[in-house]
Amino acid sequence: MTFMTATDVTVSVPESRNRTITPVILSGGTGTRLWPVSRASHPKQFWALASSRTMIGETLQRATGTTFAPPIVVCNNAHRFLVAEQLRENGCEDGRIILEPAVRNTAAAIAAAALLAAQDDPETLLWIMAADAVFRYPERLPAVLEKASTVAREGYIVTFGMKPDVPETGYGYIRLGAPLHPGHPDDSVYRVARFIEKPDHLHATEMLNEGGYLWNSGMFLASASVMLAELKRHEPDVLENVRHALLGSENDLTFRRLEATAFLRSPNVSIDYAVMERTDRAVVIPAELGWSDVGNWNALWELGDKDACGNVVVGDVVLEQSHNCYVRSEGMLTAVAGLTDIVLVVTPDAVLAIHRDYAQDVSALVSQLKKANRAEAEIHNRCYRPWGFYEGLIQGERFQVKRIVVYPGQKLSLQKHFHRAEHWVVVSGTAIVTRNEEKLMLQENESVYLPLGCMHRLENPGRIPLTLIEVQSGPYLGEDDIVRFEDTYGRQ
After folding, report:
1. What pLDDT was estimated at residue 157?
2. H/E run at residue 240
């Protein structure tokens, strides 16, 4: 059987091939309204906020099984190793990761995934979703997907509309149109009458009372060929530039790195505007999945298990005479007394305290921090790397102290510094240290001195994490004072 894709490339597909669903996971967001936990360096999808599993991990688990092809994840370069680790931890090592050179919104990301999937089978169904949504009733999802798959194979783009139970102002809405198949025994698929931007409270209340409106979940199901055809029809510049970016892409380890020049020419536009608001193929299926995009701290209060006083507590927290609060500590003891309806989030380097009614306004605080050039706006005290992580403990004039954790079998780059010397003290595990021409093996409570300018490398040959304390001293201690000579992970 031969199909003609929207890119005018003929693809041959065997008649016997079973049509599968290819999950497409968009992992480009930073979750600003969940600061100080979610930051650009480690955004919300990589945190276990609503369960014991990270949010992207939950997403991958929903999209795993015989029904699904290996997932395609679209993310930015800074998060590539975080995504790869999540795929590994969730048994999706055969998933593909597309790296965007820059943020170009969801239309370009979806175009890249659709073009890549169409190389294998243009009629595969793409289940497009964000990496950071929560479903309270995931057991209902298979039935909704089965219905959506039937409709998508008829040539429609199916969006999943969530039945609202409160006048939410943080979501867009979908107005239901006429049934897609009037008179059909199961006529619970509707044409989309229109999409509505995030409303104010008054209009959200009016829509809830009137009925016939659904929350726009931002999830879609469509064949790769249909999505590409609609992109070509409505936003050809997006499709053409992304197609060239994919043609010029390079394989980097397990990543597909899109060519930057062509990708940057693509218009910065959402898939809602590029296709969904303009296509005549848009339909919606109402669903009751207990969906939330976890867009702010109040959403986590709503999702969380509450005590007798309506409080949601995460971490080392003590409460007294407090009601309907969300209190989260990422380390230190946090004590709260006599407060009602507040959000208190404590991290090693920042504390957020707000009324729950102002949960949507956290992004304004982050904007202030960015204007003041505060590193805390985007960078965590703990920084993750493909080999493990490090976190700052103490910083003073001309010195700083860090904790470094190296995962089993991993190693840092062979490097040197022009402005600092370092002392390493092994706390647990075993370290092999390269220092110029020497190779040293260090055990617990042993140390090594690395003078300024020496070539050095750290690796963990053992089966347990290697933990050490690093003391840096010198006139400049920035992370950009690194010259790499060799790196397992292809970093420059």
Report:
1. 98
2. helix 236-247
The predicted pLDDT at position 5 comes to 34
In a 3-state reduction of DSSP, which class is residue 8?
Answer: coil
Among 47, 50, 60, which residue's Cα sits nearest to residue 88?
60
Q: Rounded distance, CA 245 to CA 239, Å?
A: 10
Radius of gyration of the chain (CA): 25
Give Cβ neighbours of residue 398 (< 8 Å, ≥ 6 apart).
473, 474, 475, 477
Give the bridge partners for 448, in sequence order. Answer: 424
Min mean pLDDT across 2-16, 188-202, 472-486 is at 2-16
The domains located in the chain, with CATH, are: 2-292 (3.90.550.10), 306-371 (no CATH), 382-486 (2.60.120.10)
- Using alpha carbons, select from 457, 430, 463, 462 the residue that is nearest to residue 446: 430
Q: Is a pLDDT exceeding 60 seen at residue 16?
A: no
Q: Residue 227: name the closest of 111, 129, 112, 71 by CA.
A: 111
47 in Cβ contact with 39 (< 8 Å)? no
Burial of 463 (0-12, 13-18, 19+ CB in 10 A): exposed
Does the pLDDT of residue 313 top 50, yes or no?
yes
CB neighbour burial string for 172-188, b if at least 16 within 10 angstroms, e if fewer: bbbbbeeebeeeeeeee
- pLDDT above 70 covers a percentage of the chain that reads 95
Q: Give dist(CA 168, CA 444) in Å, integer.
A: 54
Does 186 have pLDDT greater than 80? no
Q: Could you please report the per-residue DSSP string of 412-473?
A: PPEEE-SS-EEEEEEEES-EEEEETTEEEEE-TT-EEEE-TT--EEEE--SSS-EEEEEEEE
For residue 458, give Cα distances in angstroms to 84, 355, 413, 415: 22, 46, 8, 10
SS3 at position 140: helix
Structure tokens at 322: 């407090």
Confidence check: pLDDT of 383 > 70: yes
